Automatic annotation (TrEMBL):
Domain called ABC transporter: residue spans: 1-200
Entry superkingdom: Bacteria
InterPro entries per UniProt: AAA+_ATPase, ABC_transporter-like_ATP-bd, ABC_transporter-like_CS, ABC_transporter_ATP-bind, P-loop_NTPase
Keyword Cell inner membrane among record annotations: no
UniProt record similarity statement: Belongs to the ABC transporter superfamily.
Protein name: Thiamine import ATP-binding protein ThiQ
Gene: thiQ_1
UniProt organism field: Aliiroseovarius pelagivivens
EC code(s) of this entry: 3.6.3.-
Top EC group: hydrolase
Keyword Nucleotide-binding appears in the UniProt entry: yes
GO terms for MF: ATP binding; ATP hydrolysis activity
Keywords: ATP-binding, Hydrolase, Nucleotide-binding, Transport
Amino acid sequence: MLKLDLHRKSFAGHTVLEDVHLEIKAGDRIAVFGPSGVGKTTLLRIIAGLDKRFVGTREAPDEIALMFQNPTLLEWRTTKENLQIFHPNAEETDIQEALSQVGLQDKADHFPRQLSVGQQRRLALARCFLTPTPLVLLDEPFASLDQNLRQEMLALTRAFLDKTGSALVLVTHARDEAEALGAETYELRNVTQTGAEVAAL
């Protein structure tokens, strides 16, 4: 489903990723660890097809769901509209069910600024899973949340993955998140030390 052979990724002549090879099959779940600045988000953007300026090859499904640490909601759109604009063919009942699953059924007409940080994160998660895709990419979506909300978000994410059967690539610093989602763990190492290879832990 996903095959990435990334020989080199550079910014302004500085190599940030090198010799990264990933192959992910349907339903696989992996978590990518590594120190800040090692290139985890860059790798995720390449997997998503947002960054095509690298040396190598990428094979991926046409439909991929992506959630960043920042919810990246459209501030001028309501909660419901934030779902509809990314899923224009979704049925009304599916939208209402998605909002209900994340506890926002009474917030359909609210704007993002009227939602708490936790509610915004839950909305972004619902947007990610409203229409099932073969591959879901999550970039530290649970960072800076309090423990209760983090556990709630993890449970919702696992429930969505179990329901849809989507493959997962999670970027995180927290190993308990990988464990909670049943993800195999990989380490992205510093390019100056090891060639930024992705190695199974």
